[in-house]
Amino acid sequence: MRAAVVRETGDASVLKMESDFPTPDLKPGQVIVKNQYAGINFIDTYHRKGLYARDLPFIGGQEGGGTVAAVSDEAAAQGIQVGDRVAYSVFGSYAEYTAVPAAKLLPVPEGVSLDVATSCVVQGLTAHYLVTSAHADLIKEGEWCLIHGVGGGTCQWAAQMAKIRGYKVIGTCSKGKEDICKKLGCDELISLDEVPGTAYEDYESMDIVARVMEVTGGKGCKAVIDGIGKSTVDISINSLAHRGIFISFGNASGAVPAFPVLRLIGKSAYVTRPKLLDYTTDREELVWRANEVFGWLLEGKLQVSVDTTFPLEQAADGHLYLEAGKSKGKVLYEI
User: Fold this and answer.
1) Cα–Cα distance between 297 and 324 in angstroms, integer?
2) For the segment 294-325, what is each residue's pLDDT rounded down to a tens digit?
3) Which of 314, 238, 294, 271 is nearest to 134 (CA)?
């Protein structure tokens, strides 16, 4: 089968298309999904670089959507049928076929297209746990939340979901993505210059902390959702309200450097570094999150932007596009 494979870690050039990679075998409790789309996420670039270790070689990706092509007896007993439209998150989605445990499948409702459903699995569910659970209920309805990079895929979802949850939202974005971000419903949008030669926000181009404090009446934000990393860690911590929580979930600008925990004492602040797997620990939690996201989509409360679709043959180009900060929404491979 065709697959985009990493045989050595490194830059985007190590992600290479192969036409004769072995098709996965169907094992008990699994289905084989014929992929129509695979999502491209920053975590995929971390695996490719070796920042998050994987055994080599491996097929890239961990988010896919398509139709069920083969069903084990155990999966059939659960009512799963060949031809069902599904989305999922398991390793190896940059391929024509992926073996998926039946417990990991998300049935795609009528009215939700497969490209949008595929976009939902990692970015949508990540945004969901960030605004519903990762803050440990330290933010309440009507309180302020700062979300960095709302022009990107995950935080476009997060900004909209935070509003659904009743939080007041301050979003940061680059001026080049301002058109998209104005549609998200943020109470305050901080538009930043771009780093010369890139599409990334220049977080030094204005005093974001001062603006946050002005908007919040000097109180700061009860939660800060930060997928940027190295460039925003100081801004995030300094923007917190008393007993607020810094939620660091990504490294788009580089990994967050170590800092002394004593730094949090001024506001008795909290910090967490969560990941999606710990917020989808069983089938019940996974389905609850997915059903809520799909429900908001069907109700028109969420608007999903699929920015660009690359053919799988241009696998390296998809990673380069995402890493350059060019995306204004979800980036997919069409397979």
Assistant:
1) 28
2) 999 999 999 887 999 999 999 999 999 999 88
3) 271
246 CB-side CA count, 13 A: 23
pLDDT at 64 over 90: yes
What confidence score (pLDDT) does residue 199 get? 67
Give the model's pLDDT for residue 326.
85
Q: Decide: residue 213, CB within 10 A, 0-12 exposed, 13-18 middle, 19+ buried.
A: middle
Residue 159 burial (CB < 10 Å; 0-12/13-18/19+)? buried
99/20 Cα distance (integer angstroms): 17
243: left (phi over 0), alpha (psi -120 to 50) or beta: left
How many Å apart are CA 80 and CA 82, to the nearest integer? 7
String of DSSP letters for 225-274: EE-S-TTTHHHHHHTEEEEEEEEE---TTSPPPP--GGGGGGGT-EEE--
pLDDT surpassing 90 at residue 196: no
End-to-end CA distance of the chain: 11
Rounded Cα distance, 101 and 105, in Å: 7
Specify the pLDDT at position 230.
95
State pTM to two decimals. Answer: 0.88
Cis peptide bond upstream of 196, omega within 30: no
Backbone dihedral region for residue 50 (phi beyond 0: left; psi -120 to 50: alpha; all else: beta): left
How large is the average pLDDT for residues 223-245? 97
What tokens does 290 get?
């997915």
The Cα–Cα gap between 45 and 161 comes to: 26
Among 38, 63, 60, which residue's Cα sits nearest to residue 121?
A: 63
